[in-house]
Design brief:
Arc Repressor Mutant, subunit A, single chain, 3 domains, about 50% helix, alpha/beta, five-stranded parallel beta sheet, 17 helices, Rossmann fold
């Protein structure tokens, strides 16, 4: 299967052989006339969109019709996701590409009626009867598209989808798999609204295959980095790559930051390594910005947790943050679901040390010193070894 890496998808996708094999099998079964549903879930930046791109590429090679849309790239209005995926693009006056006017195919009667209904509801909320009719037509459009041949429908970033599109997907799931079609949806664990949870449950009951896209293995991380720099990487850069926790986007961000800072130097025989740390500050800022989707309360609490180290006890964090333990757990549930932290016995641990160090660096210096002082007191009272308490006290000056 041909694929490309993030960002820009201009490099080979690495470390995803099993997932790509599963999707190849699903495409083959659809080509033979079956229907299949696959749900691809994983943390932000783990490569879901890259795999979706790979599936589209292979489907084209197999001669399947491909329809796709991303919820992150369409307006937040009713049926926007499905309209972008399923309705033919209407020409915009004056819009041309390098080869001339942008072509558009003729719309079917169902598509024309859908377009008219959506246009009529663009500025004012649609009446319940109009919503019901629109939902019925979208459902029929999906069901009938396989009449002309096998096809692929990719819905990327489903966690951001509008509620009306989710209602159609729920209705489709209740009716079972779509014949001669592979429906592939990608999503993050958070945010996860009640509507999406209902759709996922319905698709699961309809026989959907669930695939959790896990972080890359260390060898794949190095391979990805080397594909981006075009040379073997040295020990210092390998150490930095280990902090990404196997997240392909963080790998790409780190390599790009190193390159932008001019920190790569040749290393015999024929490799490269980092020569200075001028790239760290810009990378920290970018990583923190990547966490915006978690919400300010989650990132603020994680920033305080970063003072405690790569792993921490929630009770110690509660003392440090001067918050009830139950409140901390409620906030940290989102970080757990998102894959930013994970459970390790009675502790939570940052999955990517890159995230922890970026959050730590982003703390106000005076506030950081105060947090270390509070951490020293809390850990001493909890019976932590003197050397651990001393390390925190050392950082209060």
């Amino acid at each position: 299967m041909s694929a490309h890496g993030e960002p820009g998808r201009d490099r080979p996708l690495v470390g995803r052989g099993p997932e790509l094999d599963d999707l190849d099998d699903a495409l083959s079964s659809v080509s033979a006339g079956s229907g299949s549903i696959m749900l691809l879930e994983g943390e932000a930046g783990v490569g879901k969109s890259s795999i979706a791109h790979a599936v589209r590429t292979t489907a084209h090679l197999l001669g399947l019709e491909v329809r796709s849309a991303s919820a992150s790239a369409v307006p937040r209005r009713p049926f926007a996701l499905l309209a972008d995926a399923l309705l033919p693009a209407r020409p915009v006056p004056g819009a041309e590409d390098a080869l001339g006017p942008v072509p558009s195919r003729a719309a079917s009667p169902v598509e024309e009626e859908l377009a008219a209904l959506l246009d009529g509801a663009r500025d004012t909320p649609a009446a319940p009867a109009v919503v019901a009719r629109t939902e019925e037509l979208f459902t029929a459009l999906v069901r009938r598209r396989g009449d002309s041949g096998p096809w692929l429908l990719v819905l990327d970033d489903l966690h951001l989808a509008d509620e009306a599109s989710l209602a159609v997907l729920y209705r489709l799931a209740r009716e079972g798999a779509v014949e001669r079609a592979l429906l592939l949806a990608t999503m993050r664990p958070v945010p996860r609204g009640a509507e999406l949870a209902t759709v996922v449950a319905a698709w699961t009951r309809a026989g959907a295959r669930y695939v959790e896209l896990r972080p890359l293995a260390p060898t794949a991380v190095v391979e990805l980095a080397e594909s981006r720099v075009g040379a073997p990487v040295g020990p210092a850069l390998r150490g930095a790559l280990a902090t990404t926790g196997g997240n392909p986007r963080f790998v790409a961000d780190l390599v790009q930051a190193v390159q932008d800072a001019g920190a790569l130097v040749p290393m015999p025989p024929g490799g490269v390594d980092v020569a200075h740390d001028g790239w760290v500050g810009p990378l920290d800022a970018l990583v923190v910005a990547r966490l915006d989707y978690l919400g300010a309360d989650v990132t603020a609490l994680l920033a305080r947790a970063s003072v405690l180290g790569s792993s921490f006890v929630v009770g110690d964090l509660a003392e440090l943050a001067e918050l009830p333990v139950a409140h901390c757990w409620r906030v940290l549930r989102h970080a757990l679901a998102a894959g930013v932290v994970h459970a390790r016995g009675d502790r939570l641990a940052f999955r990517h040390d890159l995230v922890r160090t970026a959050l730590y660096a982003g703390l106000d210096p005076a506030g950081r010193r105060d947090l270390h002082a509070r951490a020293a007191r809390a850990l001493q009272e909890a019976g932590a070894p003197p050397a651990v308490v001393e390390r925190h006290l050392h950082r209060t000056v």
